Amino acid sequence: MNGKLTIALDAMGGDSGPDVVIAAALSILRQRDDVRLLLVGDQQRLNAMVASAGRATENLEIRHASQQVEMGEMPSQALRFKKDSSMRVAINLVKEEQAQACVSAGNTGALMATARYVLKTLPGIDRPAIITSIPSIEGHTWMLDLGANVDCSADHLFQFAVMGSVLATAADGVERPRVGLINIGEEEIKGNDQVKEAARLLGGSSLNYIGFVEGDDVYKGGVDVAVCDGFVGNVALKTSEGVAKMVTHYMKREFSRNLLTRAAGAVALPVLNAFRRRIDPRRYNGASLLGLRGIVIKSHGGADAVAFANAIEVAILEAQKALPERIDNKLEALLTERQAV
Amino acid sequence: MNGKLTIALDAMGGDSGPDVVIAAALSILRQRDDVRLLLVGDQQRLNAMVASAGRATENLEIRHASQQVEMGEMPSQALRFKKDSSMRVAINLVKEEQAQACVSAGNTGALMATARYVLKTLPGIDRPAIITSIPSIEGHTWMLDLGANVDCSADHLFQFAVMGSVLATAADGVERPRVGLINIGEEEIKGNDQVKEAARLLGGSSLNYIGFVEGDDVYKGGVDVAVCDGFVGNVALKTSEGVAKMVTHYMKREFSRNLLTRAAGAVALPVLNAFRRRIDPRRYNGASLLGLRGIVIKSHGGADAVAFANAIEVAILEAQKALPERIDNKLEALLTERQAV
After folding, report:
1. Are residues B10 and B103 in the same domain?
2. Does the beta-carbon distance from A185 to B147 stay under 8 Å?
3. How far apart (Å, rounded) are the C-alpha atoms in residues B67 and B84?
4. Poorest-confidence range of A158-167, A239-248, A284-293, B287-296?
5. Which of A189, A297, A308, B16 would disulfide-bridge B20, Cβ 3.0–4.6 Å?
6. Which residue of A lies nearest to B235 if distances are taken between CA atoms?
7. Mean pLDDT over residues B93-100, rounded?
């Protein structure tokens, strides 16, 4: 340690492998000299690639790992047979405090299972959750869980709310983030038992709980942290991607209909591009695995260098803010408060 | 009965009341003379409104109801104290076979509770479900349940699949609609027990079950009927609305940024309007309450006359196709097939 934050990067994960990770790492190091990046993977190959990129930098180091986890591999198999995978070694570096955070674009299930096995969950946290920020009309909304847990008890949802709240404070500087529970709007049949009980727990806590929110509130704004189980969160996120893609598809089709619409499209192009930059999913790449005794960031498997660099920035931010310690403290305070009632 | 299909319309439900319903009814009757519409509500008021619209038609009749269900009213209260509500009387007309279907823009919870109480579910159907078609890149996708049932067993999901499949065949003329179960894509932790068991039931049936689909597949196409529990479906649908609204918001903002972008917007306007018509939610208004011994269509509470007319068209189609009988027959055939194995 030389006063610099150190981030371990799983260089072999993701659909495009080391190319994207190295390009992202170099782009980060061009912009900041307060971090050190550890590229984890096949040493020979990485050495050659970094050399050919022609930018050896003292803040970039390579750490060898002889294996890699495949995208379709079962998490249990990865855990058992890939003890020297780039993913596992990157997480080990966090465990051994050689790095303050790690980033991987690999297999989500294997990353979750390995991180949980190696790092363990924080006291009072039963299950880690996946969180990311989503663009909204107001700015963005943090949403969790996005797929780590399919069945969640009220206590799990409460823990998610605490973790999301701490992250929103650390990342956005909002002192009392508005926490909402995702529910459905039909009268009487409102919500299942877990959601109703979680509402009771949150209502009785000192978190800034604003009540039930519906799916559209995530994009409308008015809520900083939207909490749901991983099945609901994952389907909602994927559905959103689907709508966005359909909109783009139809737009392109309308604008390419004839010469006149093509001309209109050309005129409108800069505006459409400005719009696309605003909701660019690459800006929102980098989901956090919260609730662990260490920082693990999941990049999208298909991330390009811009998107992967964004995931590294998320890791840096969480390391600077010592997020796991903050979650630990907040949860302890809230549980003490609950017992005192 | 004079050979014409008769549809009962709850004229007092929805945010805008009889204005919208009457305008929609008149627009339908201008286009077709094979249906009769029964406006249900305050007779005096409706008489005056129809008279002032200046288009008395032999195919439009008024049926009196002295009460109305409020939008925020508890379903149990409506069921107990509003026995002469426009909603209840419209459903009674279906029960008494004076109408082949009914349409209401009223309180969803009350509509579901009343329809279930008055009409009862079909044999073999435990719970009615809400279904609607959603625009996709291919055309559209039928999705259910959209909020009637928060916790669903594997058998419920199986029944939803049967109902959705029958509707897709009746509405689109697809002989073997592709049925998918909505699930999440994470490895190993894939799905909850109900979804896994439902997959087994569907896989063993003669339905055209294509396996798990993810949230984005609903918009991508490749699946005709997407099945999920009502909590997931409701959140996914609301989230989609949220994304679409956010996209519109940002588009407007980008185009109104300065004189140049305003000019671009003016040129692009016809194209953007064409696009909006294509994904116009009014075209997709009219969700069906499936699984009942009668046809009940829910219009969006905030529907305008175009949207409400679309809901009436959905009712006409389902009445023409005798949808409840078809569902009954299909379910019986599938359950017999299952026992035979």
Report:
1. yes
2. yes
3. 5
4. A239-248
5. B16
6. A215
7. 98
- Check whether residue A242 and residue A144 sit in a common domain: yes
Q: What is the DSSP letter of B69?
A: -
Q: With an 8 Å Cβ cutoff, is A144 touching chain B?
A: no
Same domain for B254 and B299, yes or no, is no
pLDDT exceeds 60 at position A291: yes
pLDDT tier, A251 (very low <50, low <70, confident <90, very high otherwise): confident
Q: What is the CATH number of the domain that holds B130?
A: 3.40.718.10
Q: Measured between alpha carbons, how far is B337 from B331 in angstroms, rounded to an integer?
A: 10
Question: What residue in B sits closest to A249 (Cα-Cα)?
Answer: B137
Question: Per-residue pLDDT tens for A63-88?
Answer: 999 999 998 888 999 999 999 999 99
Instruction: Give the mean model confidence (pLDDT) for residues B248-259.
Output: 80
* Interval B60-66 mean pLDDT: 96
What's the mean pLDDT when you consider all of chain A? 90
Does A137 touch chain B if contact means CB atoms closer than 8 Å? Answer: yes
> pTM for this structure?
0.90
Instruction: Identify the closest residue of chain A to B139 by CA–CA distance.
Output: A246
> Could you tell me if B101 and B58 lie in one domain?
yes
* CA separation for the pair A222, A28 (Å, rounded): 33
| Token pair belonging to A260 | 């006149």
Find tokens 């600077």 and name the residue: A320
- Residues A193-224 have pLDDT tens digits of 899 999 999 999 999 999 999 999 999 999 99
pLDDT tens for each residue of B221-252: 999 999 999 999 999 998 988 888 888 787 78
Q: Which two tokens stand for residue B174?
A: 């697809």
Total domains, chain B: 2
Provide the H-helix boundaries in chain B.
18-31, 43-53, 75-81, 86-95, 108-119, 154-172, 193-203, 217-220, 230-255, 259-278, 305-320, 323-340
Two structure tokens written together for A268: 């409108």
Whether A214 contacts chain B with CB within 8 A: yes
Same domain? For A272 and A144 the reply is yes
Given the structure tokens 């035979």, which residue do they identify?
A: B340
What kind and span of H or E run contains A102? strand A101-104
Q: Using CA atoms, how far apart are residues A35 and A58, in angstroms rounded to an integer?
A: 11
The reply to whether A168 and A241 lie within a common domain is: yes
Q: What is the DSSP letter of B67?
A: B
Q: At what angle do helices B323-340 and B154-172 cross, to 10 degrees?
A: 130
Amino acid at A228: C
In this complex, the residue of B191, B215, B246 whose CB is nearest that of residue A242 is B215
Query: What number of C-beta contacts closer than 8 Å exist between A and B?
Result: 235
Burial A190-213 (b: 16+ CB within 10 A, else e): bbbebbebbbebbeebebbbbebb
Q: How confident is the model at residue A186 (pLDDT cuts 50, 70, 90)?
A: low
Q: Which residue has the higher pLDDT, B191 or B63?
A: B63
Residue B143 structural domain: 126-284
- Tell me whether A186 touches chain B (CB under 8 Å): yes
Q: For strands A296-298 and A101-104, give the pairing.
A: parallel
Contact (CB<8Å) A75/B188 = yes
Q: How far apart are CA A148 and CA A129, in angstroms?
A: 6
Give A321's DSSP letter: T
A139, A70: one domain: no
